[in-house]
Amino acid sequence: MNSQLLPAVMDPHIRMVPTPLGDLSVRTAGHGPRRVVLWPSILTDSHIFDAVADRLSPLCTFFLIDGPGHGQSPGHGQEFTGAEAGQAMLAVMDAFGLRRAVVGGVSWGGLTAAEVAMSAPGRVEALVLMNTPMDIDGDRPSFGDRMIAFGARWMAGLKVFRDGVARAFFDDEELRRNPIYHSQFHAMLAKANRRKLAAAVRSVILRGVPLRGRLHEIKVPTLMISGIADKLYPLEGQAEAALRLRDACFVPVRGHHISPIDAADDVTEALRAFLLERIPT
Q: What's the pTM value of the predicted model, to 2 decimals?
């Protein structure tokens, strides 16, 4: 048996779901009436949502996805499009009998959820975009994008690479205050199948289609969260993108790129207020 599948067998809260991107691990958390499906950033897994899911447990039931090649999700190890990632999120919803849900994520996860909102708006109660890139363009990848893709394939096992990712993604002080997640972050990347990890990273940053020019296609209520110190996708550009949405609430929070880790309390309160206002029960 593939050892990567063992946690899904042993933990009753984890289920492997067949999708167009291969088998994806989905953890359930919480017991509230609002259904929320979340997908993380590249080079992280669903543990970035643990603190928020724990705080909102009475309000929401969460379905926390590990992207292909990340965490407990083996995936199929091939490159894919953003639209195919959206289809994978819909496959997760189908597997859990979710006719409609709040969908969202961080960075890559936000892009994936946006694909669902654009292609299947009837399935989406609301959209949550956290630190989501608006201008990734696979036709014009930057040198930095190419280096990240190279590092995911050949250097993820090296602490120097993981430390570099951590400096770009997280506030140093917050990681020091959160040693459990810090350890999870390093362990996940160190143990990852680097070929599959790199295939997913290349798919996102070397095959991506800019979202900014498609925002008018999103018709559902949208919560946009951005870290005020996010150097990857600065606050000003995120705020401008929010103005392009038909029905958006824009919330800046402290911290860098992975807001559910850097600003768990702020993200929790923003999501709580948004859901109570937009998704009445």
A: 0.94
